[in-house]
Amino acid sequence: MRDAVTAVPQHDDIERRVRRAAMQVIVREAFQQTLAEQDDEHRRPAEFAEAWKSRLAALLEQETVEVPGWSKITIADLDTDLGWNLYAAVNHARSEAIACAVATPSRPLRVTDAQTSSYEFSITAGEEHSLGRVRYEICEVCSVGLLLKISFSLEWQFCGLGTRALRQMETRHPNLTWYTTGQYAHAKGFYERYRHSSHSPWTEKQRPCPHF
After folding, report:
1. Dist. CA 137–CA 139, nearest whole Å
2. Using DSSP, how many helices (H) and how many strands (E) does the chain show?
3. What is the rounded distance in angstroms from the CA atom of residue 98 to the CA atom of residue 84?
4. pLDDT tens digits, residue range 112-137?
5. Is the dihedral of CA 99, 192, 52, 31 positive or negative?
6. Three-state secondary structure along 174-212?
7. Which residue, 28, 92, 118, 152, could crosslink 110 as a Cys pair with Cβ 3.0–4.6 Å?
């Protein structure tokens, strides 16, 4: 008899967990749908949050939602207030990560007898949460810097973090003329805008000094 009684709350607890997991999946699905538009929309954080909110509202208005890897989810069976609470919590955490992101110290990548030096640093939210990273090389003899790679996942693009990273790089190595590699042709607009606000000169030329 005691086993039969205790089995009921266990079943209820499992059902609540399943419903919570289903709502988490829907909130994430709305996020992923919004993220998929970023390459074309280039939404800033506030605009992204509104678009994500609209996507979530549209999903919750449906009778059922199909998400890859899940069976059909019936919205009426779920706690939609929980969905909005999850949205608010994740969106707040995302906003805090963007606002509080900091650059780690530059780490040497290669030590040689050459006259150039390579470095890397990350933009992080917390000690272990990397949002993106920057790799670059400098030649102090010729006062030249070469941006090798700046990488942020799509989730953290168009959040101002790229500008923050480049300003950090320039601050650490002042009085250099900066070059970029040819891989940045697709981001030409970003670099054009950045050049106009930068305190360091940037050039469109693709050939820095012969020491590289």
Report:
1. 7
2. 6, 8
3. 21
4. 667 889 999 999 997 778 999 999 99
5. negative
6. CCCEEEECHHHHHHHHHHHHHHHHCCCCECCCCCCCCCC
7. 118
Q: What's the predicted TM-score (pTM) here? A: 0.82
* Residue in the block written with tokens 């030096």: 117
Domain 102-197, CATH number (from 3.30.420.40, 3.30.70.100, 3.10.580.10, 3.40.630.30): 3.40.630.30
Strand (E) or helix (H) holding 138: strand 130-139
Element (H, E) at 137: strand 130-139
Q: Could you report how far apart the first and last alpha carbons of the chain are, in Å?
A: 79
Which residue do the tokens 């050459």 mark? Answer: 114
Tens of pLDDT, residues 93-116: 999 999 999 999 999 987 666 788
Sequence ranges of the domains in the chain:
2-100, 102-197
